[in-house]
Recover the amino acids of this structure.
């Protein structure tokens, strides 16, 4: 074995140690200045990627690593600033939306999911604060249309906006179910939100609550229904028009009158109006439209059978809260008889005026011929007289005096014979006018006289001066005519007009009372049914009284008319009750009632029969009703209403219209001393009515 060289071994051992130290130093430097900073840099980048705040990276001494760490920290800070700004903007947007008067929601595309909703929308939908997440996509929350049909999700305005539909297709009115189970009417408007490239990135929805509008519209329809019901019930022609005068409604009376002729287009301009009256009616209507003053015109309308009838048309403007006219309401009333009477009176007055002119002309002509004058005077049915000025006696008095006064003329001075039998109430007026006649003034007097046989006559006396060629008054002449028939016609006309006004006012007051009393109990269809039934009962009573020209009716006729609907009449009971004519019986002696008594009893019997059909004996098949009447001492009459075999009767918990009518109103309609006693016995309702009928009053 060769000997070792000691110096060489020492050299190798020393090199190994140096290499190991160098390796250890390089590893420590790499871990301290490269590995740790790179791991910290990776952790910071991961945190920034998640949106978290990255931990600060300590300086490594390596320029590139430190530059990347600084850039990463700056980017994270910028991102935090932008997120804070976005949150602030979102908060401000939410604050603005929460103060908007309508519900607003933002939906994302294409899912339709609601990302943002204001408080108003949540309140409208009955959601708790922050409940936007509970709103289904496209707001398809059990939506229904005006007909009550469910609306598919794809047809909701928000879905249409996200699908790119036109703006007019992204709106509508719906009933949405609220969070509490109720419904709300809304008007929905939607619009798409587009990005920079024109694509649809979302949509905005606005909801307005329209419950009040719907309720107002329903109330308007109900008011219109009441108006049309009343308009169809009255005997006059009723019409309405818009502010411009275009007719938009007329009741069936118009069609019944004109038949199948053309419909009116403008009030006062109907086709069947008489050509001679059309221009005046047109002018009056246009004047009313221009000034807003009430309209009134008189014209003739052509009836379906070819007859022309006179009508008085009146219309009043209906104004809104600001005073503007939004509708005209009018009526047309047949006044043919009144017009004919007026025309007859005008003709008579014209005839009298013509006769007066004839007398004046005849008097002037007879100045030259006494024989001709006397022949004319003696042939005339009017009294002719002449007084020579300065004479104490009438120069001439025709034989008609005896025909008018029923006795020869008395021997009295001056014009004294003309005041024979003068009515005391007319004396002062006549005696004040005669001196004016003697002074040359023409007079026209009407006064009453009492004939020798006791008969009273109305006279019309015309006096006039008679002048000579020089214009000087030399005589006083005149004539007297019997005006009794004309006065009677005028009186009849006044009575007719007064009676018409009285009955129309009474009828309207009764209808108004029926409406108010019925409205206290019923609502909607129940009110309409009760009100129509009571109007029909009132109408049947009016028809009965009209057949006797409102002189009255017998009690049997009143009872039969009131009970007709429950005895197989024009308004039969429900077929399910088994009610028939044999279940309602009545009878008693002949009794005559005044119109007021007949109407009051008719309405009272109608109410008792209606109550029996709803709650009493007529509600079940075996139930019976009996109405009898008999006379009492002193001329009083007693009616007894009795129900039997019906369900047990319970006293009413509240006072309805029928009870108020029987207990409070009926006695007043039947007259002084009337008495009404009601008995709600369990075995059957009974009523006792006592009063003095018209034939005994």
């Amino acid at each position: 074995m060769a000997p070792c060289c000691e110096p060489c071994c020492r050299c190798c051992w020393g090199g190994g140690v140096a290499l190991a130290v160098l390796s250890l130093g390089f590893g420590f430097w790499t871990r301290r200045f490269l590995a740790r900073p790179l791991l910290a840099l990776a952790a910071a980048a991961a945190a920034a990627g998640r949106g978290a705040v990255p931990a600060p990276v300590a300086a490594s001494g390596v320029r590139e690593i430190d530059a990347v760490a600084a850039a990463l920290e700056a980017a994270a800070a910028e991102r935090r600033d932008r997120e804070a700004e976005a949150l602030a903007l979102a908060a401000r947007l939410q604050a603005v939306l929460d103060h908007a008067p309508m519900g607003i929601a933002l939906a994302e595309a294409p899912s339709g999911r609601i990302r943002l909703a204001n408080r108003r929308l949540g309140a409208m939908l009955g959601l708790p604060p922050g409940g936007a997440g509970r709103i289904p996509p496209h707001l398809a929350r059990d939506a229904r249309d005006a007909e009550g049909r469910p609306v598919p999700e794809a047809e909701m305005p928000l879905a249409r906006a996200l699908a790119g539909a036109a703006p007019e297709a992204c709106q509508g009115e719906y009933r949405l179910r609220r969070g509490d189970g109720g419904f709300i009417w809304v008007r929905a408007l939607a619009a798409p939100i587009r990005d920079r490239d024109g694509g649809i990135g979302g949509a905005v929805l606005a909801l307005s609550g329209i419950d009040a509008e719907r309720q107002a519209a329903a109330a308007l329809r109900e008011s219109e229904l009441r108006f049309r019901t009343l308009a169809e019930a009255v005997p006059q022609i009723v019409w309405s028009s818009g502010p411009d005068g275009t007719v938009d409604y007329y009741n069936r009376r118009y069609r019944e009158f004109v038949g199948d002729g053309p419909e009116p287009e403008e009030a006062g301009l109907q086709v069947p109006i008489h050509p001679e009256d059309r221009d005046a009616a047109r002018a009056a209507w246009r004047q009313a439209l221009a000034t807003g003053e009430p309209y009134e015109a008189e014209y003739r309308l052509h009836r379906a059978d070819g007859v022309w009838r006179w009508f008085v048309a009146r219309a009043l403007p209906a104004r809104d809260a600001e005073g503007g006219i939004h509708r005209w309401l009018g009526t047309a009333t047949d006044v043919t008889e009144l017009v004919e009477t007026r025309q007859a009176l005008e003709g008579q007055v014209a005839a009298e005026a013509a006769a007066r002119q004839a007398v004046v002309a005849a008097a002037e002509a007879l100045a030259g011929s006494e024989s001709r004058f006397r022949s004319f005077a003696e042939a005339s049915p009017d009294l002719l007289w002449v007084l020579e000025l300065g004479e104490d006696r009438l120069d001439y008095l025709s034989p008609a005096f005896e025909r008018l006064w029923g006795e020869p003329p008395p021997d009295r001075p001056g014009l004294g014979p003309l005041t024979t039998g003068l009515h005391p109430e007319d004396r002062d007026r006549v005696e004040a006018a005669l001196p004016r006649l003697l002074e040359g003034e023409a007079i026209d007097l009407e006064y009453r006289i009492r004939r020798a046989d006791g008969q009273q006559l109305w006279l019309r006396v015309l006096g006039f001066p008679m002048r000579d060629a020089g214009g000087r008054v030399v005589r006083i002449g005149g004539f007297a005519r019997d005006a009794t028939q004309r006065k009677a016609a005028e009186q009849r006309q006044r009575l007719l007009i007064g009676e018409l006004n009285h009955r129309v006012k009474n009828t309207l007051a009764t209808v108004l009372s029926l409406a108010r009393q019925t409205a206290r109990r019923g609502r909607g269809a129940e009110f309409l049914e009760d009100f129509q039934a009571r109007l029909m009962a009132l109408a049947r009573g009016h028809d009965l009284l009209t057949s006797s020209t409102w002189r009255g009716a017998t009690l049997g006729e009143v009872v039969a008319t009131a009970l007709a609907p429950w005895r197989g009449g024009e308004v039969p009971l429900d077929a399910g009750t088994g009610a028939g004519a044999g279940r309602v019986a009545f009878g008693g002696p002949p009794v005559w009632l005044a119109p007021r008594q007949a109407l009051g009893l008719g309405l009272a019997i109608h109410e008792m029969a209606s109550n029996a059909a709803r709650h009493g004996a007529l509600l079940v098949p075996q139930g019976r009703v009996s109405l009898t009447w008999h006379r009492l001492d002193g001329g009083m009459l007693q009616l007894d209403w009795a129900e039997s075999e019906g369900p047990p009767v319970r006293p009413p918990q509240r006072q309805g219209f029928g009870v108020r009518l029987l207990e409070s109103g009926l006695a007043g309609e039947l007259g002084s001393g009337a008495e009404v006693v009601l008995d709600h016995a369990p075995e059957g309702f009974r009523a006792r009515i006592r009063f003095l009928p018209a034939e005994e009053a």
Remarks:
- Residues 569-580 have pLDDT under 50 and may be disordered.
